[in-house]
Amino acid sequence: MFDIDKWQEIWITIGRNKLRSLLTAFGVFWGILMLTLLLGVSNGLSNGMKSSIQGIATNSCFFFSGTTSEPYAGFKKGRRWDIRLSDIDLIRSQVEGVRDVAPVVFGGRGTDNVMYGDKLGSFNVRGNGPELVRIEEQNMLYGRYINEIDISQKRKVCVIGKNVFSAFFKEGTNPCGLLIRCNGQYYRIVGVTKGVSNNISLGGRSDDMVVLPITTMQQLYNQGDVIHFFGVRAHDHYDIAKLEENIKDILKSRHQISPTDPQAVVSINIGEMFKTFMYLFLGISILTWIVGVGTLLAGAIGVSNIMLVSVRERTKEIGIRRALGAKPSNIISQIMTESLVLTALAGFVGFTLGVGILALIDQIIANAPADSDIFLQQLMIDFKVGISAAAILLFFGLLAGLLPAMRAMQIKPIEALSEE
Amino acid sequence: MRQLPIEGQLPFYLSKSIGGMILLEKLNKTYPGVQPLHVLKDIDLSISQGEYVAIMGASGSGKSTLLNVLGILDDYDTGRYLLDGKLIAGLSEKKAAIYRNKMIGFVFQSFNLISFKNAMENVALPLFYKGVSRKKRNQLALEYLEKVGLRDWWHHYPNELSGGQKQRIAIARALISQPRIILADEPTGALDSRTTDEVIQLLSQVNAEGITTIVVTHERSVAEQTKRIIHLKDGYIESDNINIPSLTACSK
Known about the structure:
The complex is a heterodimer.
Chain A: H1 4-16, H2 18-53, E1 60-65, E2 83-84, H3 85-94, E3 98-106, E4 114-116, E5 119-121, E6 124-128, E7 138-143, H4 148-153, E8 157-161, H5 162-168, E9 179-182, E10 185-195, E11 209-213, H6 214-220, E12 226-227, E13 229-234, H7 240-254, E14 265-269, H8 270-313, H9 315-323, H10 328-367, H11 383-409, H12 413-418
Helix pairs in contact in A: 1-10, 2-8, 2-10, 2-11, 8-10, 8-11, 10-11
Chain B: H1 12-15, E1 20-31, E2 37-48, E3 52-57, H2 63-70, E4 78-83, E5 86-87, H3 93-103, E6 104-107, H4 119-128, H5 134-147, H6 163-176, E7 181-185, H7 193-208, E8 212-216, H8 220-223, E9 228-233, E10 236-242, H9 245-251
Helix pairs in contact in B: 4-5, 4-6, 5-6, 6-7
């Protein structure tokens, strides 16, 4: 039944009342445009979030020492305590589900505390071991990261962040093997790093940091075995929330802290944060679909309404067709096709425009400097999402045509023909 | 017009010999409602192939209902209706549409052309529902337009044509699917006397080609062009007479 006449007729009926068809089509157009834009933006939001969390192990947790809030074991509340290296060793060797433990200590940051040649700069100094990169991933621009030998021999070496590098060196020079002065001591540069994640860092951005082997730092700064904070990464599929509780309990019992003290051990659970974000995006995504599909449905109801009017206006014509031998299926297919064409056309234009707008926004974001804090990235519609949007559109088109088609089918030829 | 002696009966020389194209037996039709309206009462009627019949009657006599039943546009309650030997009863919409398309050509008082189609497309429409290819049906439509003398007008739309032209196009449309019967409902009701003659002549010509033609009319002059006149009154066949033009001429 793919006869040119049928399509011609559809064009004629749509064209016979241009303004009405246009307004009707606008409902669907707007619906699909909104759906596309909403999906694109929520996708962009989620992509932006994912890219900023990239490079941070999601099943990890960081621990700090806080101030006790409950009196316990003869100590009064408000006591400060310190995490010790022995805690780290215990957690590393005894706690189930632990994959990596990365202790960190901080050095001071003073004005112009770092120097190379005649250049000065102010940067944070941090001491940690090689494990930290397994939690907070780093790209190596030059050289290598701190390794086990640096730790065990307490070597006076350092790894510098990319911003430290660019403050002292010309682009393209390899600084490895050169000496840099940091808080009055000279260290040999063994590598330059760039954090994989732009937006998330713990204890300062590693790009603005001079990193020393933790043992070197403890000795030179005379810090004893105090650890300022440490990160823990759980084995894959191991529940990080459970691990967080276990470690807190261990720390509390080893430092005479009340087991019910809520704030003596401070922890930041990346896994939980990540989960919260994922739920947030799921929520946004569901809301988007509800709003978008709702708008689209409203548009489809508009189409249905107009088709009903059109069927009423064409009662006589349909009667003539019936008298001349049109089967009910002919009439149904004509009305349905008309509704489908109207919806599909309007939908296609809306979808194209939506994708166009998304691409434009994406272009603008892509042209913005890479380090800027724009939270949106890749505002694109998945191919799969596009297909399902198209399927929903066609389904609504059919649905919109169904009622008018049923109405058209009920038209009795004699009644239609006797109507003058 | 003088009436022939055999009143209310079938013309004896047609009833059996050629075989009935249309056969109605004790046909009843009632419109339901608060006061049911019994419009067709025990109609017995036989029309043979090639007959040219006029159905006359006052408004409310049931002539339009009879035409609708004959045209499978309406159902009946009791009795039997055989069209070309096929029992027409309890048909599905689809089946009814197929029968209408194949066996019946309609001509209406108000022409009922589709306004956004030109003459050729209007004539070709029944073939569209028959599944004939576009090229072939347009070609056939032109042939039939030629027959009604309007080939040169094929690209005109109904609103560009006179009433007589429209009715001729409607007749071409009725003929194109080569139906067994033509049902014309007041075909000249909206025409002046000159175009009425044109249209009636065309119908006579159609009938001369052997197509059973049934015309519902209340114009005596139109009825007198046919060969058999059936009068309906209050749902009964009041009279059923052979119309001999010479007799009519004499009576004038």
